[in-house]
Structure formats: C-alpha cells, structure tokens
Amino acid sequence: MKVPIRTTANGTEYWDSEAKKILFVPAGIRPSFEVTEKPESMLYVETKPLTDTPVFSLEDMSATQLREFAEENNIDVPGNLKKPETIREYIEEQLAADEE
Known about the structure:
The protein is α+β, with helices and mostly antiparallel strands.
C-alpha cells in the first residue's frame, strides 16, 4: 500500500508500507503505482481528555504539596500534622465529609 504523506512544490512523497520506505514522485508526473487515499489503518483520530482537570494522586504528593492542595480546596490542616501520611488521611476525611 502506498499512501501520500507530503506534497511540496517539487513533488509528492508516498509511504510504501510494504517496502518500509518513502517514494518520491516529481511534480507533474503521475505515479507508476496504485495510490491508496486515506486508508483506515492510517487515519488519525484526535482524542480529548474527559475533563479539563488533570489527574493527580494524593499518594504522590509531599507534605508541602498536600498543604498547598488543602489550601486550594479550603481545607484547614492543623499545624500538629507533619507527616505526609497523616496530612493525606486528614484531607481525605475532609473531602469525604464535604461530599456527604
């Protein structure tokens, strides 16, 4: 299968999927091979994320990052919580309480 991949002023380049190489046909000359236009196997489908918010994990955050996250979400973390694990648990409890 030979598929056009780029056209310039000098000619057109085709991808030969069997020989795994690019074929160049000068402008004004008809290709001596059969050209496949828009084959399904080479169609590009753009995907978009389901939401605009990035996916994150509290598990991967440091204590500082957890405190920043809490501040952004209006959660007041007590000053006596120092370890990331305890801060994370507190934030998760507060988020769960907000959902109820």
